[in-house]
Write a structure and sequence with these properties.
The chain is an alpha+beta fold. It has eleven helices and four strands; from the N terminus they run ααβαβαβαβαααααα. The radius of gyration is 31 Å and the shape is rod-shaped. It is a multi-pass membrane protein.
Amino acid sequence: MSVKVIATAADRRLLDESRGTRAMTWIMAIMLFLTVLAAALGLGTLGAAALLDRQLAGRLTVQIVEAVESKRLDQTQRALAVLRTDPVVTRAVEVDRAKLTTLLRPWLGADEADPDLPIPAMIDVDLRAASDAAVARVRDGVRAVAPSARIDRHESWMSPVRSFMGMVTLLAAGLVLLMAAATAAVVILAARAGLETHRDTIEVLHMLGSTDVQVARLFQRRIALDTLIGGVLGTIGAVGVVLLVGWQLTTLGSDLLGGLSLGTRDWVLLGALPFAFAVLATLAARQAVLGALGRYL
């Protein structure tokens, strides 16, 4: 199949004779604008989910929940000793009390500075392997020396967030597929309308020896050009919106929202969308025209 992006003057007059801006171009611009936004959302969420998985994999928090301070300090030191000698543990650091009180300040108010307040001791732990067996081994070792210890696995309490991100990614992928299907439907309708409008011209072309494939090629060239021009315009507008939203996210100072960024691969995929939709429109137009010519002409 031969496809030329630059159509001749005769080709340009085949689908419509207006010298102004064609509606098809603006329709495709809107379709690609929405498609690129949906794709950017899906890719950004997918990247944030992958970053979250890397950050949380094998991370634990050990809390020593003991009301008596002397016992709490003793159990904390024993737990640290066990953790630092365990080969599956790569890092075990006690969280500073000042940092804990700062985190608790929104809930405790002025009471957070009370030295008699029994704040649990916390230990951040990184594991070499994020397996259930490694977590169970650490849990058993810590509780053997610190009965009041409670071990929280970061992956477990962040799983609802991870599930939500996965749902958003699937939803964005579904929207991209839906927009692709809608684009194909618009192209088919435009091609059939062009056939009906220029039915007499096509009959003359047939009498002059033109084949159905040659006639279909005229339509697909024109539709491919309209789709490509509109797609590039829509993509430029969508990229501007994505950059604006990304800049706004960086000003929030949130680690989770800050992960909603696009990498080089993501930008390449977004930039390829108008060309992919142009190919899709070309194929849809070709099949629509050949099918219609075979039935009616």
